[in-house]
Amino acid sequence: MRSHSTAQSQGAVIHPLFARAKQTHARSGTSATVLSFPAPEIRVPPYLLTHYWWAYVHPKAVKLFERQWLVNLILWGNYERLRNAALAEMEGSIGGRSLQIACVYGDLTSRLSARIAGRGGLIDVVDVLPIQLRNLREKLPKNAPVRLLAMDSTNLKLPDASYDQALAFFLLHEQPGHYRERTLSELFRVVKPGGKIIVVDYARPRWWHPLRYIWRPLLATLEPFALDLWRDEIGKWLPRSGATCLDRVTFFGGLYQKVVITR
Ligand SMILES: C[S@@+](CC[C@H](N)C(=O)[O-])C[C@H]1O[C@@H](n2cnc3c(N)ncnc32)[C@H](O)[C@@H]1O
Questions:
Q1: Which residue's alpha carbon is at the smallest distance from atom 14 of ligand 1?
Q2: How confident is the model over 221-232, as pLDDT tens digits?
Q3: ∠ CA 243-156-49 to the nearest 5 degrees?
Q4: Atom number of ligand 1 nearest to Cα 104
Q5: How far apart are CA 232 and CA 223, in angstroms?
Q6: Atom of ligand 1 at shortest distance to CA of 105?
Q7: Most buried among 130, 146, 158, 246, by the most CB within 10 A?
Q8: CA of 1 to the centre of ligand 1 (A)
Q9: What are 112-165's pLDDT values in tens digits?
């Protein structure tokens, strides 16, 4: 997908936002956290306002959910395991340029940024909610090599082929199908050929898993698009011309999956 208006040719045209953030980064040294809200046209997607106001949008929600034990509970005790699986997968390109699509409660990004800082890399974290980016900034050390960018995952104002790897941690299950497709298409556009797109998210638990029966109605009520990932493989939403390699591992009786797509 090379049709993005701000990035016509493989990284040659840099969107002003990207350039501005880069300058700010340079001014403050290569390892300073930069928070950037320059896109007045950014619009919160309706699915977030309708279905996830209680988890991410409302200030009280952020206060409540920014507790690792609580997120761990929601993930049935699997937060650390899934976080570590994502971090281990990113280790190979940790000295390069990484992208995290969407903030995550708990210490995933702090740990990622500490590893990246130790190896001279950079990470950009994109989220459509400024409140989430501010919350993340508070969790990071002042000199973390992180840029926090207010953008929609379906419309990244970032140049083509500019990242060595990208992570989407429990984002895709929240998005309706066409948003999910668009997010993956944008990740394909911004990750370099040969780079990895790492997805950690829900999957369909095996037939014997008790949560297959208990969790299903709850998920269907609270997270109406999550069951898409029970029904179909991630490959369904990938761009046609996309992956050269797709590697899938499941966790906790199949309820979670890590999918690594090599661009
Ligand atoms: C990554 S997901 C869920 C993570 C996981 N449940 C946790 O926090 O442990 C939640 C984040 O996705 C962000 N988000 C949802 N839709 C988005 C979109 N279209 N573009 C960018 N960020 C988005 C929300 O604002 C929120 O901060």
A1: 102
A2: 999 999 999 999
A3: 110
A4: 8
A5: 16
A6: 8
A7: 146
A8: 23
A9: 999 999 899 999 999 999 999 999 999 999 889 999 999 999 999 999 999 999
Helix/strand/coil (H/E/C) assignment for every residue in the chain: CCCCCCCCCCCCCCCHHHHHHHHHHHHCCCCCCEEECCCCCCCCCHHHHHHCHHHHHCHHHHHHHCCHHHHHHHCCCCHHHHHHHHHHHHHHHCCCEEEEECCCCCCHHHHHHHHHHHCCCEEEEEECCHHHHHHHHHHCCCCCCEEEEECECCECCCCCCCEEEEEEECCHHHCCHHHHHHHHHHHHHHEEEEEEEEEEEECCCCCCCCHHHHHHHHHHHHCCCCCHHHHCCHHHHCCCCCCCEEEEEEEHHHCEEEEEEEC
Enumerate residues 6+ apart whose C-beta is below 8 A from 41. none
